[in-house]
Design goal:
alpha+beta, 3-stranded antiparallel sheet, two-stranded antiparallel sheet
Length: 153
């Protein structure tokens, strides 16, 4: 399955594409030591996070009986603040006078936070694996030696 088909078939990857599109490429989902996360520029006053319930990395050993799905939702957090911003606080970050990056991310949070999605553990694992593979593929390309444009010795 190619990248486009995988993104369309996997709800987490599809949400990642929607985040990327709504933020004009400012925010990107990717793999990390704590699972799937979102990169956000440090210049922003808001951080866009994916919240998972139960959290697949930490709660996997203590899932309620019969629980087979993970709820995924988008939330906004203030930079340096360890709590979710209210809808009014997010709207305030969209007002004139805020920097364009903050306004763009706040707008995406507001648009995407109203809906939670259900995914299976298999879909989460598939998304994490695909994101890691794509990231490693990009790293491999970056590590290729530069082509020489003249005589070599």
């Amino acid at each position: 399955m190619d990248r486009k088909e995988l993104i369309e078939a996997n709800p987490i990857l599809s949400l990642g594409k929607e985040i990327f599109d709504r933020t004009d490429g400012i925010c990107v989902i990717g793999p990390g030591p704590g699972g799937i996360g979102v990169t956000v520029p440090q210049a922003s006053k808001i951080s866009l996070l994916l919240l998972f319930e139960p959290y697949p990395i930490y709660d996997a050993g203590s899932l309620p009986e019969g629980k087979s799905e993970i709820e995924v939702r988008v939330a906004g957090f203030g930079m340096g603040i360890k709590r979710e911003l209210s809808e009014d606080a997010v709207k305030a970050l969209m007002k004139e006078g805020q920097d364009p990056i903050t306004r763009k991310i706040a707008s995406a949070v507001l648009e995407l936070s109203g809906e939670s999605r259900k995914v299976t553990y298999e879909q989460y694992d598939e998304a994490f694996g695909a994101l890691a593979d794509w990231e490693m593929g990009q790293e491999d390309e970056a590590l290729e030696p530069p082509a020489l444009n003249g005589p070599s010795m």
